[in-house]
């Protein structure tokens, strides 16, 4: 009995011979070069389909010593902020001729290691990383190595990684939101959401505390409500605001997802944001402007931040020897109805 021969990989030479062109012409067609005549391109593409040729991107990258992909690792893709951020990354990379390799860690450092390991097998030109909570900079650097450029976004890593960092102005943003509520007459202002071990949460709490301190106010312990920065967890945490009298009359929320959750939790208790309780968020996700009521928030333009992250990592790809760069993105206060409260008598301290 004869054995069936193993299936051989179709090569560029096979395709070139099949349609009567040079191997170089087939290569130009695969790269989308405008130098190939339309009729020749159509003939080559037909032969590629007929022979079932599969383009081996990894091998091509090795030959060219370049990669046309950038890995994007997100800590919480369920957060609308990161969906917008990822869209901005993908837009900018596509315009520069790169593709996005997307991974989500769900705030798990173990999952983050697995995702990075898998993406590194594709030899990306660079990595944009929004770290999971509790990430260790030294461990990440040991896993990624020195050859692949990395841009860290929003959360600072423990230890010195030597990587580029794109930060949001967390301190200034939370301070702006708190000052806005103080100007509206509020004195009992809570801070809701996030975990204290997260650098972005610590920084936003710092801005909140600084604004209160400038107004001569020290926050009560029950005004600091810690929870996962999600809508569902924030809605569940609202009851903690009202366990002691006098209760807060306003809340600075860690992000928009938390703010929308707080608004839902207030409604469940017969209270209403913008009527008898003021709420501010952070991010200005698209839903913020159409929520009921529309959400006052710190606008950071998440899609533009994604584009900025892509541009920065590509600058590093093309200039690997430049000194590490720390970039702080601008923020602004976007006032809407959720902070437009009419306080009841005696509510202002």
Summarize the structure in words.
With 349 residues, the protein is of the alpha/beta class. It folds into three domains: 12-55, 434 Repressor (Amino-terminal Domain); 68-169 and 302-330, Response regulator (Rossmann fold, 3-Layer(aba) Sandwich), CATH 3.40.50; 170-300 and 334-339, Rossmann fold (3-Layer(aba) Sandwich), CATH 3.40.50.2300. The protein has twelve helices and twelve strands. It has a six-stranded parallel sheet, sandwiched between helices. Helix 5 links the parallel strand 1 and strand 2. Helix 5 (80-95) crosses helix 12 and helix 8 runs parallel beside helix 9 (199-214). The protein is elongated, with a radius of gyration of 26 Å.
Give the helices and strands, then pairings.
Blueprint: H1 12-19, H2 23-30, H3 38-51, H4 57-64, E1 69-74, H5 80-95, E2 99-104, H6 109-120, E3 126-129, H7 137-144, E4 150-153, E5 164-168, H8 170-183, E6 189-192, H9 199-214, E7 224-225, H10 231-237, E8 250-253, H11 256-268, E9 278-280, E10 297-299, H12 302-318, E11 326-329, E12 332-334
Helix pairs in contact: 1-2, 1-3, 5-12, 8-9, 10-11
């Amino acid at each position: 009995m004869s054995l069936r021969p193993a299936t051989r990989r179709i090569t560029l030479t096979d395709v070139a011979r099949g349609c009567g062109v040079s191997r170089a012409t087939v290569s130009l067609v695969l790269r989308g070069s405008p130098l190939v005549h339309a009729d020749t391109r159509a003939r080559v593409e037909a032969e590629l389909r007929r022979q079932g040729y599969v383009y081996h991107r990894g091998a091509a990258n090795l030959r060219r010593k370049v990669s046309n992909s950038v890995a994007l690792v997100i800590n919480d893709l369920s957060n609308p902020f990161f969906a917008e951020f990822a869209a901005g990354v993908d837009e900018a990379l596509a315009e520069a001729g790169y593709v996005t390799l997307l991974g989500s860690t769900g705030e798990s450092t173990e999952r983050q290691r697995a995702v990075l390991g898998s993406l590194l097998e594709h030899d990306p030109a660079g990595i944009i990383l929004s770290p999971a909570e509790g990430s260790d900079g030294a461990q990440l650097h040991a896993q990624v190595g020195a050859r692949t450029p990395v841009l860290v976004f929003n959360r600072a890593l423990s230890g010195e990684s030597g990587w580029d960092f794109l930060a949001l102005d967390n301190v200034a943003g939370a301070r702006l939101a708190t000052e806005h509520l103080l100007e509206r007459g509020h004195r009992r202002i809570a801070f809701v959401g996030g975990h204290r071990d997260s650098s972005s949460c610590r920084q936003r709490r710092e801005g909140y505390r600084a604004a209160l301190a400038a107004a001569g106010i020290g926050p009560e312990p029950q005004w600091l409500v810690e929870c996962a920065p999600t809508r569902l967890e924030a809605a569940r945490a609202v009851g903690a605001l009202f366990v002691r009298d006098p209760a807060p009359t306003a809340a600075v929320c860690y992000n928009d997802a938390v703010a929308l959750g707080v608004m839902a939790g207030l409604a469940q208790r017969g209270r209403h944001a913008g009527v008898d309780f003021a709420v501010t968020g952070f991010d200005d996700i698209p839903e913020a402007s159409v929520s009921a009521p529309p959400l006052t928030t710190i606008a950071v333009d998440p899609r533009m931040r994604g584009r900025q992250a892509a541009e920065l990592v590509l600058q590093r790809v093309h200039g690997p020897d430049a000194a590490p760069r720390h970039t702080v993105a601008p923020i602004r206060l976007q006032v809407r109805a959720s902070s437009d409260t009419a306080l009841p008598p005696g509510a202002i301290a």
